[in-house]
Design brief:
Blueprint lengths: L28 E5 L9 E3 L7 E2 L2 E3 L2 E7 L3
Antiparallel strand pairs: 1-5, 2-4, 3-5
C-alpha cells in the first residue's frame, strides 16, 4: 500500500507495477489487476525495458498481454 487514504475528485493517482522474469522467456504472459470500484474512468499506460513488449495503454481494469518477456 502507498498509504494514500483519499484523493480529490478529478485528481491523479499513480501506481507502479513491476514485472520481471528470472526463468525462461515467457511470451504471451498476462498481467491482470482489478482496480478499486471507487475509481471512475481509470486509464493506464505501460512501459517496457530489456526487450519486453506488450500493450501500451488501456482503460478500466488492467488486463494486458506481455507479448515478449525475455529472461
Amino acid at each position: 500500500t502507498d498509504g494514500v487514504t483519499s484523493i480529490n475528485a478529478g485528481g491523479t493517482l499513480t501506481y507502479t507495477i513491476a514485472v520481471s522474469n528470472t526463468g525462461n522467456s515467457a511470451n504471451g504472459a498476462r498481467l491482470i489487476d482489478t482496480l478499486p470500484s471507487q475509481l471512475t474512468s481509470p486509464a493506464w499506460t505501460a512501459s517496457y525495458a530489456g526487450g519486453a513488449a506488450g500493450s501500451a495503454s488501456g482503460s478500466g481494469n488492467v488486463d494486458l498481454t506481455i507479448t515478449t518477456l525475455p529472461s
